[in-house]
Amino acid sequence: MVHLGFTPLLVLVLGASLGAAFPHDALKKSCSLSKYQFLVPHELKAVQKMKEQFEDIMLLSDRKCNTRLFHRKWSTAELSVPDRVMLVEAELDLATAMLGLPASPSFAETRQRPLAFLTQAREDLRGCMAAEAPSHQPSGKLRHWLKKLQAAMQTETTGCLEASAILHLFQVLNDLRCAALREQCTWPPLAARLARHGAALTSPKGWPEDQEK
Fold this sequence. Notes:
Order of helices and strands: HHHHHHHHHH
Oligomer: single chain
Number of helices: 10
C-alpha cells in the first residue's frame, strides 16, 4: 500500500485548525469571497472535462477504493460561516495536493486550469481565515471530519485519495459556494438546492435556479 509523502504537512495544517479559539464576530465583511457565489461556466467546464478524463483513467486502472471522506451526515450549511471556510480550505488542500501528483502528459494538461482555479480559491480562503479568524476553533461536527481526513491521509493509498478528491470536486465547489454566500446559505431552502442540484454544476450554464431568475 502506497501512502502519501506529504501527510505530515497536512497533519500540521489540520493540527493548527483543530487547536485554536475563535471570536464570535470573526469573518467580517472585509473578507470577500463574493466571486465564488456564482461560479463561471468556463471554470465549471474545465473541471467537468478533467473529471470525465479522470473517470476514463479509472476505468483502465485496478484501483479498489472505499474512501468515504465526502459522505457526511450533515450539510455544510449547518456549520457556522467560519466553519464552512475552514471545511472548504481543508477540502481544497486535499484536492490541490492530489492534482499536483505526477500524471500523464494529457491529464497534466487538462488539469492545469482547474488546479489554478482551485489553488486560487484555497489561497483566498486561507487569506480570509488569517485576516479575520486566525484562531478559529472548529465545531464538533467539523472537528470530527478533520480528524477523519487526517486519519485517511495516514491510511488510504495515494490512488484512492486522488480518486476521492477528484470525483467529489463538484461537492467541493458546492461547499465553496455555500461558504461564499455566508449567511445566505441556509438549511432550508438554499442549502437544500445546493445539495439537490450539485450535478447542475457540471452544466456550462451553471445553476438551473439562477438561470431562471
